[in-house]
Amino acid sequence: MKRVLSFIALFVLITSTGFAQNQATWIWYPGDFEIWLGNNMQNRRTERGTFLPPFWKLDSHYNLIDFHKDFDLAQPEEVDLFVEGKFNVKIDGKAFSGYPKRITVPAGKHKVSLKVFCQDRVPAIYVRGKNVVSDGTWLVTFEDKEWIDETGKASDQSGTTWLKAGSWNFNDPQQPPSIFKLNTKELSAVNVTPKAGSLLLDFGRETFGFINLKGLTGKGQVTIYYGESREEALATATCETTDHLEIDLTQKRDSIMELTKAFRYVNVQFDGSVSIDSVSMLYEYLPVADRGSFRCSDEQINKIYDVAAYTLHLNTREFFIDGIKRDRWIWSGDAYQSYLMNYYLLFDSPSVTRTLLALRGKDPVTSHINTIMDYTFYWFIGIYDYYQYTGDKVFIQQFYPRMQSLMNYCLSRRNKNGLLEGLAGDWIFIDWADGLSKKGEVSFEQLLFARSLETMALCATIVNDAPNAATYNQLAADVKTKLFTNYWSDTKQALVHSRVDGVPTQNVTRYANMFAIFFNYLDDAKKQAIKQHVLLNPEVPKITTPYMRFYELEALCALGEQSYVTKEIKDYWGGMLNLGATSFWEEYNPAKKGAEHYAMYGREFGKSLCHAWGASPIYLLGKYYLGVKPTAPAYATYSIEPQLGGLQWIDGKVPTPDGDVSVYCSTKEIKVTGAGGTGTLRFKSRTKPVSKQATIRLVSTGLYEMTVEKGKSYEVNYQL
Amino acid sequence: MKRVLSFIALFVLITSTGFAQNQATWIWYPGDFEIWLGNNMQNRRTERGTFLPPFWKLDSHYNLIDFHKDFDLAQPEEVDLFVEGKFNVKIDGKAFSGYPKRITVPAGKHKVSLKVFCQDRVPAIYVRGKNVVSDGTWLVTFEDKEWIDETGKASDQSGTTWLKAGSWNFNDPQQPPSIFKLNTKELSAVNVTPKAGSLLLDFGRETFGFINLKGLTGKGQVTIYYGESREEALATATCETTDHLEIDLTQKRDSIMELTKAFRYVNVQFDGSVSIDSVSMLYEYLPVADRGSFRCSDEQINKIYDVAAYTLHLNTREFFIDGIKRDRWIWSGDAYQSYLMNYYLLFDSPSVTRTLLALRGKDPVTSHINTIMDYTFYWFIGIYDYYQYTGDKVFIQQFYPRMQSLMNYCLSRRNKNGLLEGLAGDWIFIDWADGLSKKGEVSFEQLLFARSLETMALCATIVNDAPNAATYNQLAADVKTKLFTNYWSDTKQALVHSRVDGVPTQNVTRYANMFAIFFNYLDDAKKQAIKQHVLLNPEVPKITTPYMRFYELEALCALGEQSYVTKEIKDYWGGMLNLGATSFWEEYNPAKKGAEHYAMYGREFGKSLCHAWGASPIYLLGKYYLGVKPTAPAYATYSIEPQLGGLQWIDGKVPTPDGDVSVYCSTKEIKVTGAGGTGTLRFKSRTKPVSKQATIRLVSTGLYEMTVEKGKSYEVNYQL
């Protein structure tokens, strides 16, 4: 059977390549499917059976959309139409009667347009002829302003804004966007403990999906208690998620739960005459393959990488979500880290843009993203990075107005000093950390604000909006200047945490200091000062969330402290593994013991044991050990600076828009293979390095570099 | 049967009064049901079987709403919950599990809140306890910002805006807003002409509803051709609306058409073995009773009043619509006239606010209302009038932000002279009139702009926004000043039509001139000048639409020219009656002949024969003959200035928020009964007038007035 399937897959591949330019796909107003799907997903959260929706504004898709494209056909052609919604179809402005499933487009130049109304789903079309096919080249608007005056003169529509249609991978006319579901596959428990009236199942590791009670029959009640830990599954009164069924079946049937859950352990309890043959699960996942990889001489690091990759997969779903057990909402700060990890593991751009679009929603802006000021800024910075990694200008061109209106919201909320502090309804998050002050002008927020303004300047340039590019650049420069005049303390040799009523506090925290390093906002002297006085200073309050550990370790990597970071990764992530973690957690405090680890938010099992922000080693190992990063958008140029960080050897791949960069590095040998752009390999060597395939240039004492050409492989002998 | 029904009606009245304070009703986010219903209605338009949706942006309801109210209960009470959407319910922030249908609210002070998600319908709730009932006193928001930080501290929600819940008359928990339908009743044709394979039905007058083919059976096709005229129903190739059915029935059944149509004549054609027993219709209507009335000594005027009232009823549906045959969209300029007529016939405020809300939609503003600049201004002015007639401050308090954002849109589009001219995508409508220039700065638009700014100043004052009240007043004064400096021509003794490139044209049209009169923007000299040089000047292009005839005749009435207007009404509306009109038309040109009258927009039957703007005699006769109008909001004070306009006697009622004002006036006798506020009766008399019930004051030579107290009746003997 396997051979046959492969043959079909190959055939489909050839077919779709052969007709690549004419592949029809479902299209919609860009961003609208993402918003609609975000609403659906985020409103599936329950907490012990209570519906728990988000506390911020949810937007809707535009319900009335005009789609059109101009075609020039050598031959007339038959065109099939599939539409989500009530619609009309026109050729050159002349409408067909009714709701035709097939039309003929005559030879010659013709405009084909469809107008669709749909309130519950996203107006979407799938148009399939030989040449007349729906794809991202169609133009769409939510207000065509197509009026005709009393003389029969049509409006010029010059006030109408047309965007390129949005699409994803809905290439089957029978699978419209509204019936989108993630993939599933059946998995069995690795261990089952049956008792009278109960079954305790262990699926071997953290997982996610629908429980299936197979061969269910009889009369009585079934309650399912889910646990990320064994303790949680057994704690019937306090576990976070449950399912409850009233059964009255005379025949056996399989019963699949309606909602997905996160768990490793499942405690099924039943009474009356209920019997269950067996319990399995439908594992639910987004089918996206790993392109990045990492292996090294340390097996614990390899295990950490694998568990981090699995953690990221579990949290990469309809969108990049925060954690699979509890929230299952889209949080901008959490998602931002997933974008970065994604560039080193999956390189799945649709997951990034889906998430960005769902987070942004529509105008008017009435609060910060997720109500959190920092989360608004991560949204901007996420676009900055997205452009660096992918070079996707179209995304920026389409959504620049939404970037502007969100930035206008921020600008309108500056205080008299031109800085941002929490106003009514704003949440200043920064981190989950006891006693962290959110008062006044927090330095960390100004720093993210500056980078957001730089993002706006970059995007304004991309869309040829020169006046605003200049404005945003000036605003960014102003905020950066204030960052140092207001917060740099020569006494503390660091940026202080905040100013309250115009007076800087003497409180030093790690947040602004570590970001300032990898944002490259500091001269070398200040970088070293911060390293000594903040990052490596045990007097400064420690970070206990993997969320901020991500940035702390990134800052240390950016300062070349990989060896220190290696130890930290082994201690911190290794510490979770030692406690039996099969995915990485929302928070980890080595000082805690046993089931204490599972508590958070004042709830016994409140903590998420599978949180996206726990997967940061993927990013650190790819960017700062394999050392690959773009130096121009879309990896047109990029750098490779391998760092062993105390390991004997490292070996892996980093994906780019055009192929993967392979890197192997030991203390004596470096092997690289280039991707689509032009790379620069840079490394230190105590001896003169040698390569048969390239000319190696001496940059400064002991520092060398060489050019890595598109797709070529190189071997270098050197001595660390 | 009639007595029984009356008894039940009486019982319901007593019951609902007895428990008035605890009457539960379906509630939602204010304005959202109106937007949702507007989308539904406006997307039912078809043109010979082709779906024809609006060409402007349609908005959506908020899909996630938090509802709450604080209660203080002497006893615990059982509360039933009915919800449209997925929901949770909390008491004092503590959620119930699942989706309960009934909860118990304990005695004491408690906050009851529900949070509801719904994408296809409007999130709505119906809560029914003894005291805990859903009504317009509940508070709602689309973003509760109810977050809890790591210390368990809840957000203060001070950034959350709470509005009062919206409601209408959905008092039955089993009749949620989403299943709203207008009422129907079955009517028969007054004349049926059967032929082989066809039936031609005449329903006696213009009507609206669903055709019902009774006892339909056999196999074949049925096509229904609808006609507002006999000619149209017979013109199978060019009539505007049709229905087509493929029949294959072995048993007889009744078949009711899916969509309503407007018609007087219906031409049913069928083939094959199809047979039909009979054809009836389900007349569809909004159940709202006439409160205003008018009778006079002229039977033609009485007939005109009745047909105008019927025309307004036919166009008063889910919303005030333009015409029942073709558009069935909500047009702000058309609706504005319906608001005014409504105050003199139905006094149905929900119809006004439904229409205003559906027209306004949501932010952001991306075009003028209906894309038409003048129609944006009519929206503002409609609120000005609505407040004068009803005194409804809550509407203004709830929607002032939407007024501001629409005005900001207008202000942002001013040219360097501070005036408005058509920009890309703007439609400058004014009137359907051949050769009417829309170029440059049109005086008519500036005039409406000035009144809109005055509306904003009024509303800013109502919501205690003093700084903006001052700003809007200043802006209004500026535009009014410019109106006279830029457009008043001493040569023409009139406002000229427009300025192009800063130069006034020498073109005089009626539009700005007639509005300036009843907006009271002119001194007496200019009023008289305009009367002579514009209104009564046959050289100035004539108006051929009832739409602008409305304002032309209003201006003449405001100048005391009722006798002239009586003649005009008899000629113009009487002219339509003489042609057999059973409702008033979209346009009437006495110069046309026969079926020429039915053509418009280059289509043989393009004209609507039942257009709301044709019903203006209702307004003119109520406001300028019976002479009743508010002089303070909600008729707290009002004036009664009866004008016979050449008639022997007039007799009628004008509704107010608190009772009706009755007026009878002949050349010798005036009888009035006051409503809730304080009226002032003002009249001319050649002799000293006498009343037993009041003291009559002499105002100036031959002009008298007297006070009409709340609910009291007066008789005055005088001599015209």
UniProtKB/TrEMBL annotation, chains A, B:
This is Bacterial alpha-L-rhamnosidase. Pfam families: Bac_rhamnosid-like_N, Bac_rhamnosid6H. Residues 291-623 form the Alpha-L-rhamnosidase six-hairpin glycosidase domain. Keywords: Signal. Residues 65-268 form the Alpha-rhamnosidase-like N-terminal domain. It comes from the Bacteria. Residues 1-20 form the signal peptide. GO terms for biological process: carbohydrate metabolic process. InterPro entries: 6-hairpin_glycosidase_sf, 6hp_glycosidase-like_sf, Bac_rhamnosid6H, Rhamnosid-like_N_bacteroidetes. The keyword Repeat does not apply.
